[in-house]
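Checked the freezer inventory, then went back to the computational side. Two predictions to log before the end of the day. The first one is the construct we discussed on Monday; recording sequence and tokens without edits.
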Amino acid sequence: MTTSTAATGPSLYELPADHPGSSDQAYRERRAAIAAVGEAYVVGQRIPEVVYTPEEDEVWRMVQSHLTVEHDRYAVAAYRDGAARLALRTDRVPQLQEVSDRLFALTGWRITPVPGLVPTRVFYGSLAERRFMSTQYIRHHSVPFYTPEPDVVHELIGHCNMLAEPRLADLYQLAGDASLRAESDEALEFFSRVFWFSLEFGVLRADGELRTYGAGLLSSYGEIGRFREARIEPFDLRTMGTTDYDISKYQPVLFAAESFDRAYDDLVEFFSTYGEAAYRVRWAGAADEEEAGPGV
């Protein structure tokens, strides 16, 4: 994930050309240094601290304070309960170890630091062990309300607040278990799309309005205020599992459950029973029909 600028020069974290920090050498050096912490981590050890800069702490304070207001308006009650239980720091970027300790006391979850994106099966598989893989870097200061990839804001505010609520914490583990039973790439892809349109970008109706329980929306200041403008489709697992999505754009279509309890019960049933056999018998037909298009 890193490249050296010279034999004795600093390492630069590889970023795509359209990334906000791609031309900022200091940011890329910083990303490489933080990635090295996750790269060297061994499960079971204490998570090494990252000494965040005043600029990085300010990005955290700004984004967290703005999102807290939006959560009161748009987040489901279960998420708000989890956030209150976890009580993330507001004055600086929280250290992963302190959040991990608090999560373990609340719901038995732990955090594992990683340098960046990890393989799909590795990420989902860790959920089965009640371990959440988290990055430690923070988004570029020039665009505090946007990141093209998961950062510590997304991991902690989006996912870890959810993991502090017992029902949602159990749901994540069930999802991890389901991923392990999805042996083929096709079965894992169907599962991943359901996960995307639920635990990442799920919405539902509560208190007479549309609210979200998706970590992707809950950690995005830009998108959380606009998700009600998306095309809202009924909560349907077959359709969710065969709908394409683009991670680089606001989601144009979302799937709304009629209540939190309905979404929760349906997802528990899906994750508890999903696996290679269930995919082939119950769900593969829907995927094949989506790929083939309308028949005669």
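The second is the one RB wanted added to the comparison set:
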Amino acid sequence: MAAAFDLKKLSTLDRVVAGASVLTLILLFLPWYGFSDGIYSASVSGFSTSYGWFGALLIIAAGVYLVLQRSGVNLAGIPVSPGVVVLGASGLGTVIVALRWLTVPSGGALGFSYGPKYGMIGTLIVGLGETACAFLLFRASGEALPWAKAGAPAGDTAVHTATMPTTGAMPMAAPMPTAAPPAEAAPPAEAAPPAEAAPPAEAEQSADTEPPADSAPPA
């Protein structure tokens, strides 16, 4: 059954992230790089600026994923939690656009100029705003980062669901209660030491028995 999209299910931060994705899609077709000599000018869109377009697509994907999740689409096949997906895609996309902005050639002299145009600069600003909102959503969800969950003890690791709520922030699922440790068995009672046998009574010598009389010497 197809999921129905309802704008009311989106919180304010959700709408900002979704709107930033739409705006990034528009900016991707606007001038990202160009030159001008005062009379003639030329420019290219984001698709012709090496790897910059890939960062823009990640920013767009973050908003699309969030809208699909809010619409009830089953996204349980993704191995990480929803908050991490939105924050990771928007943050990584913004970093890629920023790197392209820093490395693209720019300069000018005597009325001639070349360098990044408003399409690239606008995408960078929108990406920063989307990443900030995604971070707030992630903090509100209480989700743990993948490496934080991997390093936690087995008994202390919280169990997270693969879907976010349909409204508001993205809270994590309540952790499952851990089983109580089995009660320790009482140590066995020590056996009492055996009683020592009484020493055998010495035979009593009869008081009436007299030693034999010495025989008389012969006459």
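For RB: The CA atoms of residues 134 and 214 lie 127 Å apart. The radius of gyration is 43 Å. Let me know if you want it refolded.
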